[in-house]
Amino acid sequence: MKDYNPETFGELKADDYDAYCEGMERETRDSVAFLAALAAGGRVLEFAIGTGRVALPLAATGLEVHGIEASEHMVAKMREKPGGEAIPVTIGDMADARAEGQFDLVYLVFNTIWNLTTQDAQVRCFENAARHLSPKGVFLIEVVVPDFSEYVDGQRVKARWAEKDAIKFEIAVQDRVAQTVDFQRIVMGETGAQMSPHFMRYSYPPEHDLMARIAGLELRERYAWWDRTPFTSESKSHVSIYGAREG
Ligand SMILES: C[S@@+](CC[C@H](N)C(=O)[O-])C[C@H]1O[C@@H](n2cnc3c(N)ncnc32)[C@H](O)[C@@H]1O
Considering the chain, what percentage of its residues have pLDDT values greater than 70? Predict the structure, then answer.
């Protein structure tokens, strides 16, 4: 997708992001409990901190939480919330940007590794995470396992709803070599068409493990979800924890 860069997500979605996340309260609570236990009182850094959906309740547990985020619009939304002014954020690309100091936990959740739209950028993100870790620090990612079962010939068109004078549908077009998906959610009605684009590069758990290895890390733990459900070949998502490679 042309002209889709790291700032685009926030430019298009910052105003609606928190409304979009309504209904995720239980997931957010479970992820915060998991991350707080993993951090064990140490310093924490969220890559792509967004509007603070996870970072704010995590900071409220007493942890020192920092962030890196590409979009000033997303961070501005976090700053409006209680506690949002207190979280130090570096504006920049999580593939390269540097936050001050070392961290015992760096995490990147909600499929956001896919917001890095090339393999090179995803590898650099792992390397950047490794650069931020204290000697015992860990890097956690939470991502869905790609599923193209609804695609035909690398494409999917999905109706969301149809009313008398308006329709909502989605179009996704896959590039199997670049592992990218061009995505549009479209609402058409009397006032015309509103589009909500997204561009992502999907990646599978074994590729994440390889990226970790390139970054000098290795897989320590992998679960299917925040409740520590065991990860299997049937799992629809993974929560993976990487630490410095030993030996
Ligand atoms: C799905 S939201 C996740 C926000 C937050 N982590 C959460 O879980 O609610 C994706 C976030 O990634 C940010 N983002 C996209 N590309 C980025 C990049 N290259 N570097 C840093 N942040 C990026 C977007 O601006 C947006 O805030």
Answer: 100
Across 46-75, average pLDDT: 98
Q: Tokens for 20, please give them.
A: 């979009």
Measured CA to CA, the distance from residue 46 to residue 56 in angstroms comes to: 11
Q: Look at residue 55 and tell me whether its pLDDT is greater than 80.
A: yes
Instruction: Reply yes or no on whether the pLDDT at 247 is more than 90.
Output: no
Q: What is the token pair recorded at 57? A: 């309740």
CA 233 / ligand 1 centre spacing (Å): 27
Residues with CB under 6 Å of ligand 1 are 6, 9-10, 48-50, 53-54, 68-71, 74, 93-95, 109-110, 112, 115-116
| 216: alpha, beta or left? (left if phi > 0; alpha if psi -120 to 50) | left
- Which of these, 23, 234, 229, 24, lies nearest to 149 by C-alpha position? 234
For residue 218, pLDDT beyond 90: yes
How large is the average pLDDT for residues 108-134?
Answer: 98
> What atom in ligand 1 is closest to the CA of residue 28?
8
18, HSE (Cβ side, Cα atoms, 13 Å): 13
Is 189 inside a domain boundary? yes
- pLDDT single digits (tens) 135-149: 999 999 999 999 999
The answer to whether residue 1 is domain-embedded is: no
The CATH number covering residue 65 comes to 3.40.50.150
Instruction: Show the domain range for 184.
Output: 155-200
Ligand 1 pocket test: pick from 74, 115, 118 the residue with the most ligand atoms within 8 Å of its Cβ.
115
